[in-house]
Fold these 3 entries.
Entry 1:
Amino acid sequence: MFSYIKGILTYKEPTNCTLDVHGIGFEIHITLSTYENLPIIGKEVKLLIHHYVREDAQRLYGFFTFEEKELFLLLISISGIGAKMALTILSGATPDQFKNRIISEDVKSLTLIPGIGKKTAQRIIIELGEKLTQLSGTSSDEMSITAKYPNTEEALRALISLGYNRAESTKAINKALKEIGNNGSLEQYIKIALNKM
């Protein structure tokens, strides 16, 4: 339902914040790393949103980066891990640290995250291992280059929504960046990136 919310930050604490959008206050649950990236109260900020709906509740979960939102969605796809637990997991490690723990099957490090026992850690590794190995084909440097420019970040989302994985999409957009520079339009980046696939 929501892709992102852009508004004035009126309240923040490590687990949630409130954005004012034309007089409507949206309460958004966030990770610790998203909290650390928030501006001061009164400034405008844009958060990527997941609208979580259950029979007894509706909640908004916000993320500063697309990578963090992607990991959140992967986590809540695992049986027995709800949105609250996923938020706790992502607050206990950076996205890169978390992915490295999964790929290296580091059960011990995962159990250091509050609320994660040995069995849960093993289940996360089994269910996410293959997916994250595919995502790990892209270095954090490449991801940060892509996320640096608004049009390239939007182009990355467009390619992923078309079914391409994050690693191959990021590499293709970085090739487009080298070809036309950082002032290209969204359409140019998508067109060139698709030709690089």
Entry 2:
Amino acid sequence: MTAAPRRTAAEIELLWRRLGRDLGLFWAGTAGSFVDADLATDKRPGHGQTVTDLAVAEEVGQAVQLLVNRLMTREGELAPLGHPEYGSRHHELIGEPNTERTRNLVKLYILQALRREPRIAKVERCDVRTEARRRDIVRIELTVRLIDLDDPLNLVVPFDLETAT
């Protein structure tokens, strides 16, 4: 296997512009739970005092955030803002039993949602598994290749079939 050619600074800058920047989010739940998001803040020195400002998500942090936001948004929720297909339909499965059929539908809806994300080159893996500790929660395990990025991004997003958190 040959090593990928090294990118120039201009190519890397173009890649990060294509992936985008956004206001940074802070998730209040346990690591990887992706619930109760709020705007993140950064502290920096300024004119003799510490200044608190809104944080910016970019690079890999933005990539995680863009994927989580797409999956945590119900399809159609942003229709009034001009994005009727943004989000995922897996939220329609709240209240369904954690069976193989339900997990297959979660996977189908997740793949449909990710197919509409222009910054994803390829979904290499999407597994939906039963959470060992709680039967009502499934783990959505993803390996995604983003546009023009050599290394895949691995992400685990829990989904509660009872309460949608």
Entry 3:
Amino acid sequence: MLNRRGLTLIELLVALTLAAVVLGSATTSLLRQQRTNALIRSSANADLQRTASLGVLASQLALLDPADVASGQALDTAIQVRAGIATSTSCAAGIGFATFGTDTASGVSARPDVGDTLWWRGDTSWTPAEIVGTNQVSSACLSGAPVMQVVVRQRDTIPVDVPLRVTRQTRYALYKSSDGTWQLGVREWSPSVHGFAAPQPFAGPFVQKSGIRRTGFRYFDESGVEMSGASVDVSRIARLRITAHSFLDTRERGQDSIRTDSVDVSFARPHAP
């Protein structure tokens, strides 16, 4: 008959202590892994927001020249521009209207509307006219395919085969949303309300200001000298810098840190006076 000896109290305590150490180490490792994953997700989200905002804004503003910036509206938290929404050439001569020489899906990022501005290129300069109506017409230019025709307030003659450009007053701005966060958004001019429509956010939230750091816009002349203040001379703007700051929740330190990125946009494509 086998003689089995049970565990002594000391052996039992040692075993429990070892088990506690192993479980504690495993728990600590798991918590550290969770914190690391949370940090990676937070960092990736912050980077995504900054990349989205800078990419969208840079692609839009790179198509402009200083004449497209509204006088007195080059601010540190906002910039108001006449954004190009359609380009083409005139299909036929018209008095008080222009017929686009391309179908409505070509060269158009947004459909022209009442209140937008049509520009056509003469011998040496561009001529603006306020759009008061739009139509879809069949055109011999495209073998009867539908094309866009815009009616303007002025009764000028718009020649055939001249370059056309449609612009819309657009405001890109950092604003405080209803939930208290700061967002980068866009506001388009609305003739129905005779003002800018409510902002539509496209990236955020961002840090509006932290010490000397600020999300927004900075302006430089051809010499690289920064222009600041409430009355930036828009005709001298050669380069625009967009900067975005976003929170990164580090958790391990128990406080938030800030991630920063910026992009420069050069105004090098003259369009209109």
